[in-house]
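Q: I'm teaching a short session on how sequence maps to structure, and I want students to see two examples side by side rather than one. Could you give me a first protein with its sequence written out and its structure tokens following it? Keep the formatting plain so it prints cleanly on a handout.
A: Of course. Example one:
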Amino acid sequence: MQVSVRIGVFVSTIAILSLLVWAEGGAPAPTPAAPTREAVSVRLPGAAFAAMQTINPEHIRWHVRYLSHDLLEGRGTGQRGGDIAAEYIATQFAEYGLKPAGENGSYLQKVPLVGITTLAETQFSLVPKQGAAMNLKPLDDYVAYDQTQQAQSDLDAEIVYVGYGIEAPEYNWDDYKGVDVHGKVLLMLVNEPPSDDPKFFKGKALTYYGRWTYKYEEAARKGAVGVILIHKEDMASYPWEVVRNSNSGEKSFLKLEGPVLKVASWVQLDVAKKLAAASGLDLEMMMADARTREFHPVNMGAKLKAHMVSNVRHFESNNVLAMLPGSDRKLKDEAVIYTAHYDHLGIRPDIPGDNIYNGAADNATGCGILLELARAFSIVKDRPGRSMIFAAVTAEEQGLLGSEYLGKHPPIPPGKIALDLNYDDVQPIGSPEEVEVSGAERTTFYPWVQVTAKEFRLTIRPDARPEAGHFYRSDHFSLARVGIPSFSINQGMKFKGHDEAWGVAQDKEYVERHYHQPSDEYRPEMDFVGDAAMARFGFALGWEAASFTRLIAWQKGDEFEAARVKSQ
């Protein structure tokens, strides 16, 4: 296809002005006496344009208010509140007249999970070669889970420091250097080697190699029995409270597939410093050494002695799936999919005071947008060629589990899904002048994203915190792994009436004071104009993708290109 967007219909100048004003959160402009007709660059038929205009900030507010209410108890995975949220979303889909896309003619896709709760009887000790054992305090000093899904596991194993724990041949990087780590516990850093070179681990942008999930997976593949990740706030991109809150209480896993760890853990930076010092080593120097290709694994001369005691609960949670069939006889078997996760962290009975993790921003906002998109698409009489799938997924906070299951068991084959547009944690703080679509540039759809953003008077902002690896931290990543071109839509840092510094300050305050904390609650003063603007932007993108004559692809050489080719 040509880069310029093809003209689909003509609308009046006032329609264009309405589109732009609505993107900024205002009301439509008054109709001029004698409107002229001109081409629009966003391919929306008149009926679709009218439906997009009905997207309303207050509709999104109502969904967020309900989904983040205390009565839903934080929408924990496999917990009562999470199940209520799923039924609420399914009911909305039914009210909109969407076709069930789950199992047995329902809107629900059952996701088989195993819940693991690390119990108080667990013992976790770091034993230096000389000196006293360091008996760590759960949640304050460390967090740990047993991935084997057994009630008890015992471990007495040597600790080997492996730097970043990365083996990446394409970057000529190998932290393991052929060392046999079978039966060992691996001490490692989060993130990846720092660089400004976009050809080396993509420069400042975090790749999947920097994610803790990769580090656990790679260690297990190499036969290690445990991993201890060292938490350093600037490297992890979030404070210890996020690690603590995300890894206390029950944690969910998909049923076992392949090798796993007896101990998957994090420790505070100070704990790692004490262990290194007790082993005659300097952690700062060890961290510096890990930044070079010459790094070799270091046997710490210390051991981890752990007695892991877990409550194991087998249960099912649900993805919620609905479909709006396409209008084209040949294309309707293909689809564009919208995703957002509805789960959060539930209730933590071990925490005093307010212990309900309501998850208003994360991710009742994404669900509110998803539902409003589904409603808007449902009222369009002349549908796009491809079908539209709306998926509210579970267990994102547990490691993208619901979307991983969806990627492996989609309602139609992944090779027939043109695009996934994901919404996660869209802060209700006003009218955005920027949009973030990190990862869109990796697809052949990006030129249309650029043109559409221009029509909406939105500047495309590069990932504000590329070192945080947001592309690998939300549900679109699960679908990208099976080849589906995927990215999330969110606001940037510049908002109407404020300078960029204000937006940066809002983001910083949220991450430090509310992200994965009970204070992420609905407040009446929240401004959902921006959430509605992101919904309209996504509506236009989804319609365009559903109207293409051929499927979207990943750019040549992208890490997901091979999966896309394999799926088709």
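Q: Perfect. Now a second example for contrast.
A: Example two:
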Amino acid sequence: MSGAANCPETPRQKMIGMMYLVLTAMLALNVSASILEGFSLVDSSLHTTISSTEMRNKSLYDDFKDAFDKNPAKVKEWLDKANEVKKKSDDLFLYIEGFKRDIVRLSDKEEANDSAYVRQMLVKDNLDIAGEYALQKGNAKILKKKIEEYRNFLISTSSNNPKKQKIYNSIFSTDKVKTKDSYIPWEISLFESIPISAVITVLTKYQSDIRASETETVQYLKSQTDAMDFRVNKIMAMVVPNSNFVIRGGKYSAQIILSAIDSTKTPEFFIGGSKVPNGKYERICNTIGLAKYDGFIKLVSNDGAELKYPFKSEFIVEPPSATVSNIDMNVVYRGIDNNFDVSVPGQSAENISLVVTGGTAQKVSGGKYIIRANQDGSINVAVYAKIDGKLQQMGGGPFRVKDLPDPKAWLEYSDAGGVKRTIGNKTTKSILKSSSVSLMAGYGPNELIKANFRITEFTISRNGGNFVRVIGTKFNDLQIKVIEGLESRDQVTIENIKAVGPDNKSRNLPPMIIRI
């Protein structure tokens, strides 16, 4: 609700505003006593406006309080904010009142009249006292800070109304004031070498703006109590289940609601003739299949009539089930990571967990797990899901455990560019003599199984003789001597190859024959 739209300026207010602008423009002139008296007239008119606004505000607060008494749950939040607006408006208003009174006391001294200081002010043309009190004593800085705090508070209460924010920024602006040649601080423009009568009138104008802004803000807050209300021409019952999927032994839970109603009014809910507290329906489900139920919502209308709104719903009860699949193969190999996908119908991956008998399970992401076997024969994978805060077994089963298959062995070296290359069944003596030659073992890049193997020992011979044993993967000086004697068409035999995999088992691999 826009206060500006509902509270347009009266002709009297327009006249006061025009006089205020005219008189302010004449401050730089050597004004006569009659002009100074004009400031008093404007100030008196502003006080009349303030009194009228305060009466309007009182009526507004009374209406607000009456609405709270009728519906506290709906109005309390906004009434609390309105009371905060009142407090901050009163604080600034009274501070400015004291600010004006102190200036008049300095000018009129013992003859100052506290109750009607402007209309009975004796000294009206003094150009120094206002500047002395406000600027030299530092009171202008305090006033400026309080006005800025009040302005920011009003802006925060109208965060959804940019137009109001712009108005508050303008009315309570403390920016520098543009003169003919430059910009001067706000406090200098207001108090330095300005007649007391004009200063008092400007300050009263701020008080009038405070009360008007208070009206605008409280009207806006009061409008928010009905902001979420709306008219409807149809009311219907709705059932909102937590899930339409229930496993046997699990609990079905649904929220029964009446759509398009006032949330501060509480209807009554019935299923099968029995009342459902707070509209939350729950039951234990032991029978598999389709389950149906119906009921009605009872609501008393504003005229006391009893209205009933029927509803019905259904859900499916299924036995526990789970899907457990080994992504790579249908067996589990010892010593390596076996990748699994695990899912439970109707349950998110976050609620699923595994228990592996004879092994371990590590969750990678979503429903993906890594399972490692630590025994021979078989392992058992059990799938659990957290339902209603409790773990329930959903399925699973045994998996055979097998040893890793034997890998293949090959010779490998690095070329001049540092690229790894494999030595085939034919090569040159210079390549075999390279210090980068190593005996490797593995499954190759295209195999489903991924595992690392380490060569522990092997023997090398030339043309069926000169057998030399090697520990590790590299040729030593003895093997180099064997290779040194090689000639074209000679053959090198590498045999008795032993390799150890991630399962820590040693394997004998087939021999290799290489021709020069």
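Q: What should students look for in example two?
A: Point them to this: Residues 33-70 form the longest helix (38 residues). Also worth mentioning: The chain has a mean pLDDT of 79.
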